[in-house]
Amino acid sequence: MRRALALLTVALLVATGCSSGGGSQVGGDLVAIGAGLQGPSGTTARVYATGVPAVSALAFDDQGRLWAASAAYDDKGDDGIYLVQGGKATKVTAAHTPLGLLWIGDTLFVAQKEAVVTYSGFDGTAFGSATTVLTLPSGVGEVNGLALGADGRIRLGISAPCDSCTPTNALSGTVVSFAPDGTGLQVEASGIRAPVGLAVRPATGALYVTMNQRDDLGASTPGDWLSVVSTGQKWGFPACYGQGGTACQGVPAPVAVLDPHAAVSGVALLTDQLGSSFRDVALVAEWAKGVVLAVHLDPADGHAARVDTFLTGIKSPEPVAAVPGTGAGVVVGDWSSGTIYLVTA
Question: Does the pTM of the predicted model rise above 0.70?
Fold first, then answer.
């Protein structure tokens, strides 16, 4: 996501709407659903909370409380982790460019600059302890989303520290896994420009990852991707960007090709949170386009049956995070305004 922030000016210049030819298509049935948003008929939106500056990630704990990360464009020491309750957000601890949150039991895992830090012992006001369980090399790249695999290991996306170079660090441009105590770090898949949002599909255990693509190719710039990532894959960055031919020989195909320059960020895999019409749907936030897309997945193979626009009208608009609620609905965070929306059916 911070690759998107670093390219904010370029992204906004090209973000003139959803593209055709592999990108999203604005659904004709979008209607006003509340809170200034347009969405599918039958859904309702409201402002869940405000006051999280530069909201960058969201996660619910096992008590149903929502937590939010704040990551500004530049790390000036005021990023942090917030507890969201009663429509308000309270900063609980400082952090440095936190872009991924994951609760396992009573422990919060935070992916931040060149590290993963755990927080535990929350007493309603503060955490009792903080432990750095994973330290990554300086300059490795953005440290992005987190997801817990069916095997009990944590997956983490790490961007390449460049737009088109060949990374010198083996951890750059990869999805890695490690045990919750930080041991056993290994590369699961490599050659990914920027694996940002990660989510595990409950029905299959498949790992879905949003991938920001190269932005330096002019008219040949590809759409960003939603992909299923498996162990041992090589995605071909920087030589392969979906153009086919020798450079892409053996490279996996994405689940869906989304908009160019979209800066895709968070992904939420829905089951029954919005009813049967949105079962087997991946909601993908496009930061630079200001929309949330619905990627309708084929129940049989998990690939895209179609892609359409799920939400428009977001206040800033720069959505970065979308997570299923603990009951009904889905929450979506807007980076610039610090607004968190709840969408229900």
Answer: yes
The answer to whether 141 and 173 have CB atoms below 8 angstroms apart is: yes
Q: How far apart are CA 150 and CA 205, in angstroms?
A: 6
% of the chain residues with pLDDT over 90? 78
Name the one residue in this structure whose structure tokens are 């709840």. Answer: 342
For residues 24 and 10, give the distance between their C-alpha atoms in angstroms, rounded to a whole number: 20
Cα–Cα distance for residue pair 174/233, rounded to 1 Å: 10
How many alpha carbons fall within 13 Å on the CB side of residue 198? 29
User: Could you give the 3-state DSSP secondary structure of residue 191?
Assistant: coil
What is the rounded CA–CA span in Å between residue 345 and residue 339?
20
- C-alpha–C-alpha distance, residues 266 and 58, integer Å: 9
Tokens of 216: 């330096």
Backbone torsions φ then ψ of 5, nearest 5 degrees? -65, -40
